């Protein structure tokens, strides 16, 4: 009998299929893993913007989690866009019962421009309840400053976040204007840096943050160590950007992908 490892995404949907749960399932599939889903929000969106958001009640989030956890062979999970503090409380309560599952927390709180994406009470719930459960948290620079409670270099922020919350940290470098995107990983003992050149004139980059966190979960589900997982996930996203293609009117593109090899 063949058994396939599973990954779980807890995030919002993207009706255009570029980001959110849809991007996560695409990443899991590329790694040969079965994907399970918990929808925390529904969105009406396309590459040009989000026109509507419909929150999923906390009790239905709980029902989805209860239907999946303990039944499927979930080796790792990722969280993405979460807007409702009560839903975050529910998610944290359920995930705390499963320390055996590797958890990648993408704290979707602040855009790289500095604009806050969720209200303060949601930020507080993510920081106090979800981040301490993470195996790896993946903030951009503004989110890292929020989690650290201070400004500083990526290394300084990563150390502060680890000391405050006890989880490994990957500070993403997508905010940088440098010739390469450099991410900084701190596992509580060692720092590692991972750089990839920017793809020139990509057709689409919509959903890269979601895709990175999902690929990280997939890498961890397959037993990779943190450094190898980051290296593999960054390669997956870089390849997806290079393979991005049009799926509609000019400017309507989607990330591409190819099956990942062991």
Walk me through what this model shows.
- With 262 residues, this protein is α/β, with parallel strands linked by helices.
- It has one domain: Ribokinase (UDP-N-acetylmuramoyl-L-alanine:D-glutamate ligase), CATH 3.40.1190.
- The strands form two sheets. The chain has a nine-stranded mixed β-sheet, sandwiched between helices. A two-stranded antiparallel ribbon has the order 10-11.
- Helix 7 packs across helix 8.
- It is globular.
- The two termini are 21 Å apart.
- The mean pLDDT is 93.
Helix and strand arrangement:
Elements: E1 6-12, H1 20-30, E2 34-46, E3 49-55, H2 58-68, E4 74-79, H3 85-95, E5 102-105, H4 120-130, E6 136-137, H5 141-148, H6 154-165, E7 168-171, E8 180-186, E9 191-197, H7 208-221, H8 226-242, E10 245-246, E11 253-254
Helix pairs in contact: 1-7, 2-3, 3-4, 5-6, 7-8
Number of helical runs?
8
The rounded Rg comes to 17 Å
**Could you give me the name of the CATH homologous superfamily?**
Ribokinase
- What's the quaternary structure here? single chain
Helical content band:
25-40%
Q: In order across it, which strands form the biggest sheet?
A: 3-2-1-4-5-6-7-8-9
Dominant shape: globular
| N-C termini distance | 21 Å
SSE arrangement, N to C = EHEEHEHEHEHHEEEHHEE
- Number of domain units: 1
The name of the CATH architecture is 3-Layer(aba) Sandwich
Q: Would you report the number of β strands?
A: 11
Tell me the β content: 15-25%
Unreliable segments (pLDDT under 50, ≥5 consecutive)?
none
């Amino acid at each position: 009998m063949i058994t396939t490892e599973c990954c779980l995404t807890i995030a919002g949907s993207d009706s255009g299929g570029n980001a959110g749960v849809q991007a996560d399932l695409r990443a899991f599939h590329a790694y040969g893993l079965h994907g399970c889903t918990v929808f925390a929000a529904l969105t009406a969106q396309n590459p040009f913007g989000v026109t509507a958001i419909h929150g999923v009640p906390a009790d239905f989030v709980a029902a989805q989690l209860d239907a999946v956890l303990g039944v499927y062979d979930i080796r790792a999970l990722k969280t993405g866009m979460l807007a409702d503090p009560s839903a975050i409380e529910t998610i944290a309560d359920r995930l705390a019962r499963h320390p055996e599952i590797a958890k990648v927390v993408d704290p979707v709180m602040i855009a790289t421009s500095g604009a806050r994406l969720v209200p303060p009470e949601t930020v507080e719930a993510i920081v106090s309840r979800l981040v301490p459960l993470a195996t790896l948290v993946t903030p951009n620079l503004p989110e890292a400053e929020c989690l650290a409670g201070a400004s500083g270099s990526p290394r300084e922020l990563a150390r502060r976040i680890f000391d405050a919350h006890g989880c490994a940290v990957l500070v993403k470098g997508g905010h940088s204007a440098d010739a390469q995107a450099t991410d900084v990983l701190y596992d509580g003992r060692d720092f590692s840096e991972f750089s990839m050149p920017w793809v020139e004139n990509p057709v689409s980059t919509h959903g890269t943050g979601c895709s990175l966190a999902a690929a990280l979960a997939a890498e961890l589900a397959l037993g990779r160590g943190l450094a190898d997982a980051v290296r593999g996930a960054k390669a997956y996203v870089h390849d997806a950007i290079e393979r991005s293609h049009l799926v509609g009117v000019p400017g309507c593109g989607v990330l591409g992908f190819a099956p990942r090899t062991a």
